[in-house]
Task: structure prediction
Amino acid sequence: MDDMLRRISSAVIEGEKDDTGQMAQDAIDGGCSAEAILYQGLMPGMDHVSKEFKTGRMFVPEVMRSARAMLNAMAVIKPQMVKDGVQMVGKVLLGTVRGDMHDIGKNLVGMMCEGAGFEIRDLGSDVAPEAFVAAVNTYAPDVVGMSALLTTTMRTMADTIKALEEAGVRDQVKIMIGGAPVTQAFADRIGADGYAADAAAAADKARELIAAG
Ligand code: B1M
Result:
């Protein structure tokens, strides 16, 4: 069984996206729990990928292949996880803010967070502040993650935080922001709880924000 989980980890690291779904199915058929596949196979694999990305030994296309490999396995084990009542690390609501169509980085953040054991609700791009508010009410996420790639749309992050405050739900969530023009100083200025420079750091930051309570 351990060998099967180790092979799943390696397949994620190597980005063998066409194999991981079948490997996950074989593991389930062989009596492996969905929880073990997630926590002892997929997550350690993505954790390794995250470290390699941080240190510049893996690059965006490779990380995306690994994330796809993980997601293909997740699709297979998800029904079993629901049946078994497996707890995820937390819920992250993601979106690129209003007026901004860039979603490649945001998608990578979603994949990395999913690899780190989070349940992801992705609102897509060009997401209005009211849509973030509505989704917070519907999904009750632990973390709201906003992405912006344009200097002109960064200010919408502040508008979204204001909308969450006005709706009375600001204190129910942690707010994490990121995107190429975004900085820690900007996050501090608009009252976000956290900033992450890249997708691997975003998964770490989401974990840190939840742990901080
Ligand atoms: Co656009 N674009 N673009 N573009 N585009 C940039 C961002 C730009 C820097 C290019 C340039 O001029 N050098 C420039 C912005 C300038 C500025 O504001 N300072 C720009 C512009 C001007 C525009 C248009 C206005 C161009 C026009 O039409 N005149 C237009 C705007 C459209 C709109 O959004 N309303 C536009 C359009 C487009 C395309 C549609 C063609 C396409 C987007 C396709 C898509 O996303 N589906 C596009 C692209 C691809 C780019 C570049 C080339 C690449 C962006 C990207 O995907 N990077 C970009 C130039 C560049 O960055 N070199 C550019 C790869 C990605 C993995 O990195 O998104 O930075 P990134 O994400 C990282 C981190 O930032 C971080 O983690 C990610 C992964 O490690 N991160 C987070 C991101 N979100 C996070 C959230 C977090 C935490 C971390 O927490 C929640």
